[in-house]
Protein backbone atom coordinates (compact mmCIF):
# COMPACT_ATOMS: atom_id res chain seq x y z
CA UNK A 1 0.00 0.00 0.00
CA UNK A 2 1.53 3.31 -1.03
CA UNK A 3 1.26 6.52 0.98
CA UNK A 4 -1.43 9.09 0.22
CA UNK A 5 1.25 11.41 -1.21
CA UNK A 6 2.34 8.73 -3.65
CA UNK A 7 -1.29 7.93 -4.49
CA UNK A 8 -2.01 11.58 -5.25
CA UNK A 9 1.11 11.89 -7.42
CA UNK A 10 0.14 8.72 -9.27
CA UNK A 11 -3.38 9.95 -9.89
CA UNK A 12 -2.22 13.33 -11.13
CA UNK A 13 0.59 12.05 -13.32
CA UNK A 14 -1.82 9.55 -14.88
CA UNK A 15 -4.30 12.32 -15.69
CA UNK A 16 -6.84 11.34 -13.02
CA UNK A 17 -6.80 7.64 -13.84
CA UNK A 18 -4.50 6.41 -11.13
CA UNK A 19 -4.99 4.13 -8.20
CA UNK A 20 -6.75 4.98 -4.96
CA UNK A 21 -7.41 3.68 -1.47
CA UNK A 22 -10.79 2.32 -2.53
CA UNK A 23 -11.30 -0.68 -4.79
CA UNK A 24 -14.39 0.94 -6.29
CA UNK A 25 -12.96 4.41 -6.49
CA UNK A 26 -13.60 6.83 -9.30
CA UNK A 27 -9.81 7.22 -9.24
CA UNK A 28 -9.53 10.90 -8.54
CA UNK A 29 -8.37 13.36 -5.95
CA UNK A 30 -10.25 16.42 -4.77
CA UNK A 31 -7.69 19.05 -5.84
CA UNK A 32 -4.72 18.83 -8.16
CA UNK A 33 -2.86 21.37 -5.98
CA UNK A 34 -2.40 18.63 -3.39
CA UNK A 35 0.65 17.73 -5.44
CA UNK A 36 2.17 21.16 -4.67
CA UNK A 37 4.52 21.56 -1.73
CA UNK A 38 2.72 23.16 1.25
CA UNK A 39 5.16 26.09 1.40
CA UNK A 40 3.62 27.36 -1.80
CA UNK A 41 0.58 28.29 0.32
CA UNK A 42 2.52 29.90 3.19
CA UNK A 43 3.08 33.10 1.21
CA UNK A 44 -0.52 33.47 0.04
CA UNK A 45 -3.36 35.04 2.03
CA UNK A 46 -4.33 32.64 4.86
CA UNK A 47 -6.22 29.56 3.69
CA UNK A 48 -6.58 25.97 4.81
CA UNK A 49 -4.94 24.89 1.57
CA UNK A 50 -6.07 22.20 -0.84
CA UNK A 51 -7.96 19.22 0.56
CA UNK A 52 -11.16 18.66 2.47
CA UNK A 53 -11.32 22.09 4.17
CA UNK A 54 -10.41 24.15 1.11
CA UNK A 55 -13.84 25.79 0.89
CA UNK A 56 -14.15 26.59 4.60
CA UNK A 57 -13.62 30.21 5.53
CA UNK A 58 -10.53 30.72 7.64
CA UNK A 59 -10.52 33.31 10.48
CA UNK A 60 -8.54 36.43 9.62
CA UNK A 61 -6.37 36.07 12.74
CA UNK A 62 -5.29 32.47 12.03
CA UNK A 63 -1.62 31.80 12.75
CA UNK A 64 0.51 32.20 9.64
CA UNK A 65 3.61 30.31 8.67
CA UNK A 66 6.51 32.36 7.32
CA UNK A 67 8.39 31.14 4.30
CA UNK A 68 10.33 27.92 4.92
CA UNK A 69 14.06 28.58 4.31
CA UNK A 70 15.17 27.84 0.75
CA UNK A 71 17.50 24.98 1.66
CA UNK A 72 14.55 22.94 2.98
CA UNK A 73 12.34 23.79 0.03
CA UNK A 74 15.08 22.69 -2.36
CA UNK A 75 16.05 19.52 -0.52
CA UNK A 76 15.16 16.18 -2.09
CA UNK A 77 13.12 13.64 -0.08
CA UNK A 78 16.33 11.61 0.36
CA UNK A 79 18.25 14.61 1.71
CA UNK A 80 15.43 15.51 4.09
CA UNK A 81 15.31 11.92 5.28
CA UNK A 82 19.03 11.92 6.09
CA UNK A 83 18.83 15.30 7.83
CA UNK A 84 15.79 14.39 9.94
CA UNK A 85 17.31 11.09 11.01
CA UNK A 86 20.65 12.75 11.82
CA UNK A 87 18.97 15.50 13.88
CA UNK A 88 16.82 12.99 15.74
CA UNK A 89 19.85 10.83 16.45
CA UNK A 90 21.86 13.79 17.72
CA UNK A 91 19.01 15.00 19.92
CA UNK A 92 18.19 11.55 21.32
CA UNK A 93 15.68 11.76 24.17
CA UNK A 94 15.86 15.58 24.17
CA UNK A 95 13.21 15.67 21.41
CA UNK A 96 10.10 13.55 20.96
CA UNK A 97 8.16 13.56 17.69
CA UNK A 98 4.41 12.95 17.92
CA UNK A 99 2.39 11.94 14.85
CA UNK A 100 -1.38 12.14 14.59
CA UNK A 101 -3.24 9.25 12.94
CA UNK A 102 -4.23 11.57 10.06
CA UNK A 103 -0.70 12.73 9.34
CA UNK A 104 0.93 11.74 6.05
CA UNK A 105 3.21 8.65 6.09
CA UNK A 106 6.13 10.76 4.88
CA UNK A 107 6.04 12.41 8.32
CA UNK A 108 4.68 9.52 10.42
CA UNK A 109 7.81 7.49 9.66
CA UNK A 110 9.74 9.79 12.02
CA UNK A 111 7.17 9.75 14.85
CA UNK A 112 8.11 8.29 18.23
CA UNK A 113 4.42 7.98 19.09
CA UNK A 114 1.34 7.69 16.87
CA UNK A 115 -2.19 8.26 18.14
CA UNK A 116 -5.12 10.63 18.46
CA UNK A 117 -4.68 14.12 19.81
CA UNK A 118 -5.24 13.41 23.48
CA UNK A 119 -3.31 10.14 23.47
CA UNK A 120 -0.36 12.04 22.03
CA UNK A 121 -0.56 14.83 24.60
CA UNK A 122 -0.51 12.14 27.29
CA UNK A 123 2.36 10.30 25.60
CA UNK A 124 4.52 13.39 25.85
CA UNK A 125 4.18 13.13 29.64
CA UNK A 126 5.92 9.75 29.52
CA UNK A 127 9.08 11.35 28.08
CA UNK A 128 10.66 13.09 31.08
CA UNK A 129 13.89 13.83 29.20
CA UNK A 130 12.16 15.50 26.26
CA UNK A 131 12.94 19.21 26.11
CA UNK A 132 11.11 19.58 22.78
CA UNK A 133 7.75 18.01 21.94
CA UNK A 134 7.38 18.25 18.19
CA UNK A 135 3.69 17.81 17.41
CA UNK A 136 3.00 16.70 13.85
CA UNK A 137 -0.70 17.42 14.10
CA UNK A 138 -2.69 20.65 14.21
CA UNK A 139 -2.76 23.78 16.36
CA UNK A 140 -5.28 22.82 19.07
CA UNK A 141 -3.40 19.54 19.65
CA UNK A 142 -0.14 21.38 20.24
CA UNK A 143 -1.96 23.71 22.66
CA UNK A 144 -3.25 20.73 24.65
CA UNK A 145 0.22 19.19 24.73
CA UNK A 146 1.62 22.50 26.00
CA UNK A 147 -0.97 22.68 28.79
CA UNK A 148 -0.23 19.11 29.90
CA UNK A 149 3.55 19.28 29.64
CA UNK A 150 6.10 20.76 32.03
CA UNK A 151 6.99 24.44 31.83
CA UNK A 152 10.55 23.58 30.83
CA UNK A 153 9.35 21.61 27.79
CA UNK A 154 8.74 23.40 24.47
CA UNK A 155 5.90 22.29 22.23
CA UNK A 156 6.65 22.90 18.57
CA UNK A 157 4.22 22.84 15.63
CA UNK A 158 6.37 22.39 12.49
CA UNK A 159 3.99 24.45 10.33
CA UNK A 160 2.01 27.17 12.10
CA UNK A 161 -0.59 27.12 9.31
CA UNK A 162 -1.67 23.64 10.41
CA UNK A 163 -4.89 24.67 12.13
CA UNK A 164 -8.20 22.82 12.18
CA UNK A 165 -11.18 24.16 10.24
CA UNK A 166 -13.63 22.58 12.70
CA UNK A 167 -11.94 24.06 15.77
CA UNK A 168 -11.95 27.46 14.04
CA UNK A 169 -15.75 27.30 13.64
CA UNK A 170 -16.19 28.16 17.32
CA UNK A 171 -14.21 31.13 18.62
CA UNK A 172 -14.22 32.56 22.12
CA UNK A 173 -16.08 35.74 21.11
CA UNK A 174 -19.04 34.02 19.45
CA UNK A 175 -19.31 31.37 22.17
CA UNK A 176 -19.26 34.10 24.84
CA UNK A 177 -21.99 35.98 22.97
CA UNK A 178 -24.05 32.81 22.75
CA UNK A 179 -23.56 32.24 26.48
CA UNK A 180 -24.82 35.74 27.27
CA UNK A 181 -27.96 35.08 25.25
CA UNK A 182 -28.49 31.74 26.99
CA UNK A 183 -28.18 33.42 30.39
CA UNK A 184 -30.86 35.90 29.36
CA UNK A 185 -33.14 33.11 28.16
CA UNK A 186 -32.60 30.53 30.91
CA UNK A 187 -31.39 32.68 33.81
CA UNK A 188 -28.54 31.59 36.05
CA UNK A 189 -30.33 29.86 38.93
CA UNK A 190 -30.18 26.11 39.51
CA UNK A 191 -33.47 24.16 39.58
CA UNK A 192 -34.90 22.30 42.60
CA UNK A 193 -32.55 19.36 41.86
CA UNK A 194 -29.52 21.63 41.91
CA UNK A 195 -29.00 21.47 38.15
CA UNK A 196 -27.71 24.68 36.59
CA UNK A 197 -29.45 25.96 33.41
CA UNK A 198 -26.62 25.08 30.98
CA UNK A 199 -23.36 23.10 31.13
CA UNK A 200 -20.81 23.94 28.40
CA UNK A 201 -19.08 20.93 26.85
CA UNK A 202 -16.31 21.36 24.33
CA UNK A 203 -14.85 18.72 22.06
CA UNK A 204 -11.09 18.28 22.33
CA UNK A 205 -10.94 19.82 18.84
CA UNK A 206 -11.22 23.38 20.10
CA UNK A 207 -8.95 26.21 21.13
CA UNK A 208 -7.43 26.39 24.61
CA UNK A 209 -9.55 29.53 25.17
CA UNK A 210 -12.74 27.47 24.79
CA UNK A 211 -11.46 24.77 27.11
CA UNK A 212 -10.79 27.55 29.62
CA UNK A 213 -14.31 28.91 29.01
CA UNK A 214 -15.70 25.50 30.03
CA UNK A 215 -13.39 25.19 33.02
CA UNK A 216 -14.59 28.55 34.36
CA UNK A 217 -18.30 27.72 33.94
CA UNK A 218 -18.58 24.25 35.45
CA UNK A 219 -18.06 22.64 32.06
CA UNK A 220 -15.84 19.95 30.67
CA UNK A 221 -13.91 18.68 27.63
CA UNK A 222 -14.74 15.46 25.78
CA UNK A 223 -13.13 13.30 23.11
CA UNK A 224 -14.87 11.16 20.51
CA UNK A 225 -14.11 8.13 22.75
CA UNK A 226 -15.71 9.45 25.92
CA UNK A 227 -18.44 11.85 24.70
CA UNK A 228 -21.30 9.71 26.11
CA UNK A 229 -19.76 9.45 29.59
CA UNK A 230 -19.09 13.18 29.59
CA UNK A 231 -22.61 14.06 28.41
CA UNK A 232 -24.10 11.83 31.11
CA UNK A 233 -22.03 13.70 33.70
CA UNK A 234 -23.26 17.02 32.26
CA UNK A 235 -26.93 15.94 32.25
CA UNK A 236 -26.64 15.10 35.95
CA UNK A 237 -25.44 18.63 36.69
CA UNK A 238 -27.30 20.73 34.16
CA UNK A 239 -30.75 21.07 32.68
CA UNK A 240 -29.18 21.22 29.23
CA UNK A 241 -25.83 21.22 27.47
CA UNK A 242 -24.19 23.66 25.06
CA UNK A 243 -21.99 21.42 22.89
CA UNK A 244 -19.29 22.84 20.60
CA UNK A 245 -17.81 22.96 18.04
CA UNK A 246 -18.88 19.68 16.32
CA UNK A 247 -22.63 19.35 15.90
CA UNK A 248 -22.31 15.81 14.52
CA UNK A 249 -20.43 14.30 17.47
CA UNK A 250 -22.91 15.98 19.82
CA UNK A 251 -25.98 14.84 17.88
CA UNK A 252 -24.78 11.28 17.28
CA UNK A 253 -23.81 10.81 20.92
CA UNK A 254 -26.93 12.36 22.48
CA UNK A 255 -29.21 10.51 20.06
CA UNK A 256 -27.69 7.20 21.12
CA UNK A 257 -28.38 8.21 24.71
CA UNK A 258 -32.07 8.69 23.89
CA UNK A 259 -32.30 12.47 23.47
CA UNK A 260 -34.98 13.19 20.79
CA UNK A 261 -33.81 15.17 17.76
CA UNK A 262 -36.48 17.80 18.49
CA UNK A 263 -34.61 18.58 21.70
CA UNK A 264 -31.31 19.12 19.93
CA UNK A 265 -31.52 22.41 18.03
CA UNK A 266 -28.48 23.72 16.18
CA UNK A 267 -27.05 27.05 17.33
CA UNK A 268 -25.97 29.18 14.39
CA UNK A 269 -23.77 31.97 15.82
CA UNK A 270 -24.59 34.28 12.89
CA UNK A 271 -28.29 34.41 13.79
CA UNK A 272 -30.17 35.91 16.75
CA UNK A 273 -30.99 33.21 19.33
CA UNK A 274 -28.85 30.91 17.19
CA UNK A 275 -31.65 30.81 14.59
CA UNK A 276 -34.12 29.24 17.05
CA UNK A 277 -37.53 30.14 18.41
CA UNK A 278 -38.13 30.66 22.12
CA UNK A 279 -40.24 27.47 22.19
CA UNK A 280 -37.45 25.37 20.65
CA UNK A 281 -34.93 26.70 23.13
CA UNK A 282 -37.31 26.15 26.03
CA UNK A 283 -37.45 22.39 25.42
CA UNK A 284 -33.80 21.99 24.32
CA UNK A 285 -31.69 19.37 26.03
CA UNK A 286 -28.57 19.77 23.86
CA UNK A 287 -27.70 22.94 21.93
CA UNK A 288 -25.44 21.94 19.07
CA UNK A 289 -22.97 24.51 17.78
CA UNK A 290 -23.06 24.86 14.01
CA UNK A 291 -19.62 23.35 13.42
CA UNK A 292 -18.41 20.32 11.48
CA UNK A 293 -15.35 18.55 10.15
CA UNK A 294 -15.02 18.89 6.40
CA UNK A 295 -13.21 15.55 6.18
CA UNK A 296 -16.05 13.62 7.81
CA UNK A 297 -18.81 15.64 6.20
CA UNK A 298 -17.83 14.10 2.88
CA UNK A 299 -19.16 10.63 3.80
CA UNK A 300 -22.65 9.71 2.63
CA UNK A 301 -25.28 7.00 2.85
CA UNK A 302 -24.94 6.50 -0.93
CA UNK A 303 -21.27 5.57 -0.41
CA UNK A 304 -22.28 2.99 2.20
CA UNK A 305 -24.91 1.53 -0.14
CA UNK A 306 -22.33 1.32 -2.93
CA UNK A 307 -19.81 -0.42 -0.66
CA UNK A 308 -22.43 -2.97 0.43
CA UNK A 309 -23.41 -3.60 -3.17
CA UNK A 310 -19.82 -4.11 -4.32
CA UNK A 311 -18.63 -5.98 -1.23
CA UNK A 312 -21.35 -8.15 0.33
CA UNK A 313 -20.42 -8.79 3.95
CA UNK A 314 -18.36 -5.58 4.20
CA UNK A 315 -18.19 -4.03 7.67
CA UNK A 316 -18.78 -0.28 7.55
CA UNK A 317 -17.17 1.69 10.37
CA UNK A 318 -17.36 5.47 10.51
CA UNK A 319 -16.17 8.22 12.82
CA UNK A 320 -18.85 9.98 14.93
CA UNK A 321 -17.91 13.32 13.31
CA UNK A 322 -19.83 11.99 10.27
CA UNK A 323 -23.42 13.19 9.70
CA UNK A 324 -26.14 11.34 11.64
CA UNK A 325 -27.58 9.55 8.58
CA UNK A 326 -24.14 8.09 7.85
CA UNK A 327 -23.59 6.95 11.44
CA UNK A 328 -27.07 5.39 11.48
CA UNK A 329 -26.44 3.50 8.23
CA UNK A 330 -23.00 2.20 9.28
CA UNK A 331 -22.38 -1.05 11.17
CA UNK A 332 -20.43 0.79 13.83
CA UNK A 333 -19.21 4.27 14.70
CA UNK A 334 -16.31 5.20 16.92
CA UNK A 335 -13.14 7.20 17.46
CA UNK A 336 -9.94 6.65 15.53
CA UNK A 337 -8.75 4.44 18.39
CA UNK A 338 -11.96 2.39 18.11
CA UNK A 339 -11.45 2.01 14.35
CA UNK A 340 -7.82 0.94 14.71
CA UNK A 341 -8.74 -1.63 17.38
CA UNK A 342 -11.70 -2.98 15.38
CA UNK A 343 -9.47 -3.64 12.38
CA UNK A 344 -6.75 -5.20 14.55
CA UNK A 345 -9.22 -7.56 16.24
CA UNK A 346 -10.97 -8.77 13.05
CA UNK A 347 -10.38 -12.27 11.68
CA UNK A 348 -8.15 -12.49 8.59
CA UNK A 349 -10.03 -11.96 5.35
CA UNK A 350 -12.36 -9.28 6.75
CA UNK A 351 -13.50 -6.43 4.52
CA UNK A 352 -13.81 -2.90 5.93
CA UNK A 353 -15.20 0.27 4.41
CA UNK A 354 -14.00 3.03 6.71
CA UNK A 355 -15.35 6.55 7.03
CA UNK A 356 -12.45 8.58 8.32
CA UNK A 357 -9.42 10.47 7.05
CA UNK A 358 -7.66 8.82 4.11
CA UNK A 359 -4.14 8.69 5.61
CA UNK A 360 -5.31 6.50 8.48
CA UNK A 361 -7.39 4.27 6.20
CA UNK A 362 -4.57 3.70 3.73
CA UNK A 363 -2.10 3.05 6.54
CA UNK A 364 -4.42 0.44 8.05
CA UNK A 365 -4.62 -1.16 4.60
CA UNK A 366 -0.83 -1.46 4.57
CA UNK A 367 -0.60 -2.73 8.15
CA UNK A 368 -3.29 -5.41 7.69
CA UNK A 369 -2.77 -6.93 4.24
CA UNK A 370 -4.82 -9.95 5.39
CA UNK A 371 -7.94 -7.71 5.20
CA UNK A 372 -9.51 -5.69 2.41
CA UNK A 373 -9.67 -2.11 3.71
CA UNK A 374 -10.83 0.92 1.79
CA UNK A 375 -12.05 4.44 2.40
CA UNK A 376 -15.79 5.00 1.94
CA UNK A 377 -15.05 8.22 0.08
CA UNK A 378 -13.88 7.27 -3.42
CA UNK A 379 -12.09 10.61 -3.82
CA UNK A 380 -8.65 11.01 -2.27
CA UNK A 381 -9.12 14.17 -0.22
CA UNK A 382 -6.94 14.43 2.92
CA UNK A 383 -7.36 16.73 5.90
CA UNK A 384 -6.10 20.01 4.43
CA UNK A 385 -4.52 21.22 7.61
CA UNK A 386 -2.63 18.07 8.62
CA UNK A 387 -1.35 18.12 5.07
CA UNK A 388 0.43 21.42 5.71
CA UNK A 389 3.06 19.48 7.68
CA UNK A 390 5.77 18.11 5.39
CA UNK A 391 9.20 16.57 6.11
CA UNK A 392 10.79 19.89 5.08
CA UNK A 393 9.24 21.68 8.10
CA UNK A 394 10.13 18.81 10.40
CA UNK A 395 13.78 18.94 9.31
CA UNK A 396 13.77 22.72 9.79
CA UNK A 397 12.48 22.69 13.40
CA UNK A 398 14.58 19.67 14.43
CA UNK A 399 17.85 21.11 13.11
CA UNK A 400 17.06 24.47 14.68
CA UNK A 401 16.45 22.82 18.05
CA UNK A 402 19.73 20.96 17.72
CA UNK A 403 21.41 24.38 17.35
CA UNK A 404 19.53 25.66 20.41
CA UNK A 405 16.75 27.57 18.60
CA UNK A 406 13.11 26.88 19.44
CA UNK A 407 11.03 27.64 16.35
CA UNK A 408 7.23 27.65 16.06
CA UNK A 409 6.69 27.23 19.78
CA UNK A 410 3.05 26.96 20.89
CA UNK A 411 2.54 28.51 24.30
CA UNK A 412 -0.77 28.83 26.11
CA UNK A 413 -0.71 31.66 28.70
CA UNK A 414 -1.28 30.46 32.26
CA UNK A 415 -4.39 32.65 32.54
CA UNK A 416 -5.96 30.35 29.94
CA UNK A 417 -4.10 27.13 30.73
CA UNK A 418 -5.19 27.05 34.41
CA UNK A 419 -8.98 27.02 33.77
CA UNK A 420 -8.53 24.87 30.65
CA UNK A 421 -6.76 22.25 32.77
CA UNK A 422 -9.75 22.29 35.13
CA UNK A 423 -12.02 21.23 32.24
CA UNK A 424 -9.50 18.60 31.11
CA UNK A 425 -9.11 17.22 34.64
CA UNK A 426 -12.90 16.90 34.96
CA UNK A 427 -12.87 14.79 31.82
CA UNK A 428 -9.95 12.67 33.00
CA UNK A 429 -11.75 11.96 36.29
CA UNK A 430 -14.62 10.52 34.23
CA UNK A 431 -12.66 8.65 31.60
CA UNK A 432 -8.92 8.09 31.96
CA UNK A 433 -6.97 8.63 28.75
CA UNK A 434 -5.71 5.72 26.67
CA UNK A 435 -2.08 5.75 25.63
CA UNK A 436 -0.63 6.47 22.20
CA UNK A 437 1.24 3.69 20.47
CA UNK A 438 5.02 3.86 20.52
CA UNK A 439 6.06 3.78 16.89
S1 LIG B 1 -9.83 15.85 10.32
FE1 LIG B 1 -11.35 17.48 10.66
S2 LIG B 1 -11.39 17.78 12.89
FE2 LIG B 1 -9.50 16.61 12.40
S3 LIG B 1 -7.90 18.20 12.16
FE3 LIG B 1 -8.75 17.80 10.10
S4 LIG B 1 -10.39 19.37 9.88
FE4 LIG B 1 -9.89 19.25 12.06
TrEMBL record:
Keyword vocabulary terms for this entry: 4Fe-4S, Cytoplasm, Iron, Iron-sulfur, Metal-binding, Pyridine nucleotide biosynthesis, Transferase
Subcellular location: Cytoplasm
Gene Ontology cellular component list: cytosol
Region (Disordered): 45-75
Cofactor(s) this protein cannot do without: [4Fe-4S] cluster
Residues the entry annotates as binding [4Fe-4S] cluster: 164, 293, 383
Cofactor note: Binds 1 [4Fe-4S] cluster per subunit.
Enzyme type, top EC level: transferase
Major localization class: cytoplasm
Binding locations of iminosuccinate: 100, 117, 203-205, 224, 319-321, 336
Gene3D superfamilies linked: NadA-like (3.40.50.10800)
Parts of the chain that traverse the membrane: none
InterPro entries assigned: NadA (IPR003473), NadA_sf (IPR036094), Quinolinate_synth_A_type3 (IPR023515)
GO biological process: 'de novo' NAD+ biosynthetic process from L-aspartate
Gene this protein is translated from: nadA
SUPFAM superfamilies linked to this entry: NadA-like
Pathway: Cofactor biosynthesis; NAD(+) biosynthesis; quinolinate from iminoaspartate: step 1/1
Catalytic reaction annotation: iminosuccinate + dihydroxyacetone phosphate = quinolinate + phosphate + 2 H2O + H(+)
Role according to the record: Catalyzes the condensation of iminoaspartate with dihydroxyacetone phosphate to form quinolinate.
Top-level division of the source organism's lineage: Bacteria
EC number: 2.5.1.72
Similarity comment text for this entry: Belongs to the quinolinate synthase family. Type 3 subfamily.
Name by which UniProt lists this protein: Quinolinate synthase
Pfam family, one: NadA
Entry's Gene Ontology molecular function annotations: 4 iron, 4 sulfur cluster binding; metal ion binding; quinolinate synthetase A activity
Polar residues biased stretches: 50-68
Amino acid sequence: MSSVDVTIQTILSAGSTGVSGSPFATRSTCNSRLADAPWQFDVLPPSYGPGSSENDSIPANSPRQGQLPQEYRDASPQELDLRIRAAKHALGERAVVLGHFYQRDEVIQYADFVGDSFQLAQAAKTCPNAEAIIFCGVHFMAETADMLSRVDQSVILPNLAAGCSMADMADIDSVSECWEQLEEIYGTEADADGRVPVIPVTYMNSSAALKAFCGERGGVVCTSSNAAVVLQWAFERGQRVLFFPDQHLGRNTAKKMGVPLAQMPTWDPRKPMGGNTAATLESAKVLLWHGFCSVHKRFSVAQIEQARKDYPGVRVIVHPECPMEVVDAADAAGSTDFIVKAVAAAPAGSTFAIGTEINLVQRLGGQYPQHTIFCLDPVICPCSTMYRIHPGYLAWVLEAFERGDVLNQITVPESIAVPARVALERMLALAPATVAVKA
